[in-house]
Specification:
The protein has 249 residues and is of the alpha+beta class. It has a five-stranded mixed beta barrel with strand order 1-2-3-5-4. It has a two-stranded antiparallel ribbon with strand order 6-7. It contains six helices and seven strands, in the order βββββαααββααα. The structure holds zinc ion. The site of zinc ion has 8 residues, from loops. Zinc ion (ZN) binds next to loops.
Length: 249
């Protein structure tokens, strides 16, 4: 089997056997894959710190026709996010974005936009800290890339503009609704949260952050997007439970 060379981001890794690691990674060209890194847990392993959470690496691996797991031959670090782990909340953000990415992507489905989103988000966490707007941006775009995004502009039933009064939604409802059309169980998304959502979807993350988005509104938006993701994944996200929720004043 020929060796493949690619860029990848490490999503997760687990100890395997005596000294190996099972690694889940997002290959920029070929999508999410799992592989075995032999001897990665042994002292002086040739893998060094390349297999840490969200490490951006160049990777060489062999695919075997009969097996699901690839054999990882070599990795070179391009960019590490290990230093961010010293901040608790930043560490949880990294764990959450990698958990979401792993959960939403099918194995071996090319996912270059999600690859770029993940890298951009990790870099923004380094630059700005674990800031709720960064999480809101990541989650909303993941919802959009998954094809689960509702219009944030108009009521899904009557078409009324949602700009001023906010919108009602629930994770399972396909759409946002005005006060008249909403169901009782739907939660209100404030006008501020909606405008942060629109800014996230219509521009770059950098531009969103320059606008100094309000903490409470950003948290509202990221919670909504995480609810939608959990609804479609049909499970709770583990890292979400570890987030320190910032109480709005
Ligand atoms: Zn309506």
């Amino acid at each position: 089997m020929p060796i493949k060379e690619s860029e990848a981001i490490v999503l997760r890794s687990f100890p395997l056997g005596e000294g190996d690691r099972l690694v889940s990674f997002l290959d920029r060209q070929f999508g999410r894959l799992r592989g075995v890194a032999r001897g990665a847990r042994l002292p002086k392993s040739r893998f060094g710190s390349t297999l840490e959470l969200l490490s951006y690496i160049r990777i060489w691996y062999f695919e075997r026709e009969t097996r699901e797991l690839v054999r990882i031959n070599q990795c070179e670090l391009i960019e590490s996010f290990l230093d961010l782990q010293s901040d608790y909340q930043a560490g949880v953000y990294l764990a959450l974005i990698s958990e979401v990415t792993e959960a939403v992507l099918g194995e071996r489905e090319a996912a270059d936009p999600q690859f770029r989103l993940l890298l951009l988000t990790a870099r923004a966490i380094r630059k700005n800290g674990p800031y709720p707007a960064v999480l809101a941006y990541f989650c909303l775009w993941t919802v959009r890339l998954g094809g689960w995004l509702s219009s944030l502009d108009q009521c899904a039933r009557c078409g009324k503009e949602l700009e001023h009064e906010g919108a009602y939604a629930s994770a399972g409802s396909s759409g946002m609704f005005c006060t008249n059309c909403r169901e009782n169980w739907m939660k209100l998304l404030s006008p501020v949260a909606l405008s942060i959502g629109r800014a996230a979807l219509s521009g770059t993350l950098e531009r969103l952050l320059k606008g100094n988005p309000q903490l409470a509104g950003s948290t509202e938006m990221s919670s909504y997007a995480l609810d939608v993701l959990e609804h479609h994944l049909e499970r709770k996200l583990v890292a979400r439970q570890m987030l320190i929720t910032e109480k709005s004043e």
